[in-house]
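Lab meeting, item 3. Inverse folding demo.
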């Protein structure tokens, strides 16, 4: 790279994670703060703006053995506790959305009652937050007629449920992570555009908990860079990794806020290393990844956490294994990558795509769950694509084709796939985007007929209706912590990991 590019990279290295990114012909530039829109004027806001909310009156602190992501400051609400949120300047606009982002991993439900403490305790609604990972924003739409009351009195938030709830406060503003801080999104429009989506995604605002969530985001950023030449995406990858790595040391927490520094936390946690291997193929943590896969390997060669075969391994193990195998020119790893898919062909049977096959009982669970289908098909498609010029396996290719046909048969008229694809429940935008991306990769690699493109295009068109004014993706099935009942319902959330799948679809379809 030229001197200008090297200087820009040095400026971005807050933690000196990757001193040299060997990608020829691409310069980097700093990513601007996301979608703040125009300033206020006499008629109100033009575009959209995230108005920071100052937090007044919190109680409690996180448990001493737990750690908050990136050292950011949380606010902890105890049951029946309240906080006051005050905007730092006057609000004027058409559409208002209160946003809070989860700072402490959740395995239960939090109900937050939102009101204006104006003497009459004007009720605005509730935030219903269930089984959430950290770094996920939740929003409540507020009628614009309440803007004067909010300007005068602020917003009161009370926790109605029986477990403490932790959310991020105003911290690390220099990173531009405005989406995770308490804020009111004020907008002149109700929906976002693809430009809003890209600007929000290619920034620190798309960061997620390290593991499959962040890995999906990183993969989306890489596809935007490699297929669309988006330099902002490469800069965002660097920005994301700088938050997780201190030099060569990985620093992150698991799904219980327990520190897992320089450790591998199960097979679902290894998808981020596909992107890492592309930009820093000799990073020492990659050897730790291989060692972890070795420790998870069963007698038949499958890398899995136990007796259950899960769909996630198609995307979180086979795919990064193929990428690392290519980066290291390791034929053994490449063969092992295909072996992971071959052992998971059992997940695609009859007219179904299954999340889990329990080898001890010979039974399936989470049949036709959309995001499980996405993990399977996307893992197959990306692994086949990585290895196509070196190793091919006809059984794997035919299984992939069958899986795609099974999914297409369950696509809804609106272009999306429901959370459980063969039942009547709300669509899942993340699963839909992942399935569609796999279809387009299959077409690009000559595995599927070009006529299949219409299924992906129909999905792409529908997804634009699920963008917030500042470009976040709604309609995502929640993390799979509440079991089948939660997934079979219509509860859907904003999730940047879903944006990762949508970004992959954008890279293939445009």
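The presenter then showed the designed sequence:
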């Amino acid at each position: 790279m030229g001197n200008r590019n090297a200087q820009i990279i040095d400026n971005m290295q807050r933690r000196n994670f990757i001193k040299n990114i060997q990608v020829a012909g691409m310069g980097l530039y700093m990513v601007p703060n996301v979608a703040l829109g125009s300033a206020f004027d006499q008629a109100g806001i033009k575009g959209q703006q995230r108005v920071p909310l100052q937090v007044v009156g919190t109680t409690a602190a996180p448990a001493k053995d737990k750690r908050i992501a990136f050292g950011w400051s949380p606010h902890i609400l105890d049951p029946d506790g309240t906080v006051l949120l005050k905007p730092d300047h006057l609000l004027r606009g058409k559409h208002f959305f209160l946003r809070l982002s989860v700072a402490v991993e959740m395995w239960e439900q939090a109900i937050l009652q939102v009101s204006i403490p104006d003497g009459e305790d004007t009720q605005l609604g509730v935030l219903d937050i269930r089984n959430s990972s950290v770094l996920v924003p939740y929003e409540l739409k507020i009628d614009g007629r309440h803007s004067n009351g909010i300007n005068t009195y602020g917003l009161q938030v009370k926790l109605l449920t029986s477990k403490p709830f932790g959310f991020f406060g105003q911290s690390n503003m220099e990173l531009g992570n405005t989406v995770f801080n308490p804020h009111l999104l004020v907008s002149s429009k109700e929906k976002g555009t693809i430009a809003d989506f890209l600007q929000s995604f290619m920034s620190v605002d798309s960061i997620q908990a390290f593991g499959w969530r962040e890995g999906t985001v990183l993969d989306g950023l890489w596809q935007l860079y490699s297929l669309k030449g988006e330099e902002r995406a490469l800069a965002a990858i660097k920005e994301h990794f700088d938050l997780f790595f201190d030099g060569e040391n990985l620093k992150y927490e698991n799904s219980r806020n327990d520190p897992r520094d320089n450790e591998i936390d199960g097979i679902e946690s290894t998808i981020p290393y596909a992107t890492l291997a592309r930009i820093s193929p000799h990073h020492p943590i990659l050897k730790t990844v291989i060692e972890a896969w070795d420790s998870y390997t069963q007698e038949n060669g499958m890398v899995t956490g136990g007796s259950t075969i899960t769909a996630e391994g198609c995307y979180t193990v086979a795919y990064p294994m193929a990428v690392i195998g290519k980066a290291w020119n390791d034929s053994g790893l490449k063969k092992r990558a295909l072996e992971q898919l071959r052992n998971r062909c059992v997940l695609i049977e009859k007219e179904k795509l299954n999340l889990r096959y329990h080898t001890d009982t010979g039974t399936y669970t989470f049949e036709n769950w959309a995001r499980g289908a996405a993990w399977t098909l996307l893992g197959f498609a990306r692994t086949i694509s990585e290895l196509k010029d070196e190793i091919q396996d006809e059984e794997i290719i035919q299984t992939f084709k069958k899986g795609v046909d099974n999914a297409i048969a369950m696509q809804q008229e609106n272009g999306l796939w429901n959370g459980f694809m063969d039942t009547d429940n709300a669509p899942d935008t993340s699963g839909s985007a992942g399935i569609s991306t796999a279809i387009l990769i299959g077409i690009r690699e000559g595995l599927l007929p070009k006529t299949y493109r219409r299924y992906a295009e129909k999905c792409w068109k529908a997804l634009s209706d699920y963008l917030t004014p500042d470009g976040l993706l709604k309609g995502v099935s929640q993390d799979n912590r509440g079991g089948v009942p939660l997934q079979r319902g219509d509860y859907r959330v904003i999730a940047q990991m879903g944006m990762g799948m949508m970004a992959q679809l954008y890279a293939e379809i445009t």
